Amino acid sequence: MTKAPQKSLEARYYTDPAIFAAENAGLLARTWQFACHVSALARPGDYTSFEIAGESLFAIRGRDGVIRAFYNVCQHRAHQLVKGSGHTRVVVCPYHAWSYELTGQLRAGPNLNVVEGLDKSQICLAKVACEEFLGFLFVNLDPDARPMDTWFGDARRELAEWVPNWAALKPLEWVEIPENCNWKVSVENYSECYHCGLNHPTFATGVIKPETYDIQPQGHCLRHTTECQNLAQMTYDIQSGFAHQNEYSSWYLWPMFSFQVYPGNILNTYHWRAIDADHVVVWRGWYSVDGQESETLRGLAVQDRQTTVAEDITLVESVQRGLKSRGYRPGPLVLDPQCGVNSEHSVKVLQDWMRQAVDTPPL
Which of 71, 117, 111 is nearest to 91 (CA)? Predict the structure, then answer.
């Protein structure tokens, strides 16, 4: 008996605001989400705020050198504590001047001595699980979150091999790129190269060798591997002196972050920030030693935005419009047992995760 082909997700997974709300309450609140690069927290007292799953959070480096993350809310009467980034000796609420140590412990507050039975040692900012991953800080709102290495297989070890100078890197450039589509449309497009030969001539002829491109799951990481071609025609010097300088590879960490390493061991990152069911912002990062200016990196970033990024925006926004058409019916995924560039096996893996995230009740 012939097996029916697996079909793509129904359009409602990408267009229904109720599904986006369910993802915000569930998936995004119980997975590892990018917070900041740790270079933003270089000294004790350095802090930065950010939003995850609709929650305002902040991270701060303690006097003991440890980075901690907290919900951005005072334990007195719920005023937000900090905005943006900065440096402080203690965290002071701007509403009633309750102050907290860098560990989150309540330090003092005006006239607290009149409060009978108050035990300051029992009042602390609400902590959030956080973990440093090769210079990038991730947080997870799930108090029982498993460590990142149990989620993403060998990604940390492999990335350290491809970017051996990661500890010296700082952001050179972060660019926000809005896309008028659901975040899952953008992530799916990133996670297959079935479309590359037709739509990305610069990437497909100047960086990768499409016939060798493959994507395989490693836990909740999708690992992109490929041989490179035309390296002699590269627009920059790839001779870094490191292993893997002649290679391109990528590690997508479900659900919202990806590391890319270009020939020459150049690190680039994607951070998807879902806005609503129809909009996502992709935060593209490029990194250099100590964040030093680099004509090579600036040029590569411009080339990338003018070619691959611009081409992808056209594609994903067209898909989002099509998903809202009365004429769309989910089509079969192309699942080649041999995998490879002309297969959508990685999309199947992604869509299984996406379906499970929505159909499994929030914690």
Answer: 71
